Amino acid sequence: MNKKTVLITGSSRGIGRATAILFAKNNYNVVINYNKSEKEANELYNTLTEKGLSVRVFKADISKRYEVNSMVNFCIGEFGKIDVLVNNAGISTDKLFTDLSDEDWDEMMNVNLNGVFYSTQKALQYMIPEHSGKIINISSIWGLVGGSYEVHYSTSKAAIIGMTKALAKELGPSNIQVNCVAPGVIQTDMLNNVSQEILDMLRDETPLMRLGTPDDIANCILFLADDKSNFITGQVISPNGGFVI
Ligand code: NAP
User: Fold this and answer.
1) The pTM is what?
2) Which residue in 179, 147, 151, 176 sits closest to 163, CA to CA?
3) For residue 129, how far is its CA from the centre of ligand 1 (angstroms)?
4) Distance from CA of residue 176 to its chain's centroid?
5) In total, how many domains does the chain have?
6) For residue 101, what are the domain limits?
7) Ligand 1 test: best mutation among 36, 40, 86, most atoms within 8 Å of CB?
8) Is 126 among the residues known to form the active site?
9) In a domain, 173, yes or no
10) Does 76 sit in the ligand 1 pocket, CB within 6 Å?
């Protein structure tokens, strides 16, 4: 069978990294994207290629349109197509809304929202003529319910949900499914600045009594990329251990 190709933004670390590993093991061609973590991205690339898996690695800052265009063109040059785009790369910072500077706001929107805009627009240039494709956007529970000290982050993640729903309507006739994964609290570097006390509190408030792992999210993304989910579009799936119901 013809291998499918996936491009995963921000796959040097965390959820993106786990997703790259899972897709590669499930017989996808995988383009790993990184921005700052060159060492981690190359280590991942080497580990997967040593296992005979089909991966490539590409540096691009997704907040810059020309770098995103180069990344998608690289994917097409290497594999001839892009079947699945996972818009995963993201940043988070904690700050009171009243303390946010224009720079704080712009940086958050440039990466978390404009990066999704640029990547999706460029990928669609190849998906629409094929009348086929899957776009999976990574939002957050904070985009669903709002998080204090994270108004800028929550805003960017809520916008992704709106974009997912509107795009799903626009792209349905082109047979392109657009869905959103809104993870709960997942153990990655993104939690490095969260105190153990807060993490314990979050775990205690989670019905399943644990925090999530990158694999919990990767499995959900793999399902949304698969033909088994072909009738699902415009939906938000939130793997969060029951933290938000
Ligand atoms: P992470 O461990 O901090 O990893 C973030 C990834 O995004 C890294 O690979 C990083 O690459 C990449 N990235 C950041 N800025 C980038 C840019 N400008 N261009 C390209 N790549 C960039 O975070 P994570 O927890 O895996 O988060 C992944 C996604 O899940 C994010 O969208 C996040 O908002 C969302 N999420 C996370 C949680 C959680 O609790 N962890 C919960 C809900 C949603 P480099 O290091 O190479 O720059």
Assistant:
1) 0.99
2) 179
3) 30
4) 17
5) 1
6) 5-237
7) 36
8) no
9) yes
10) no
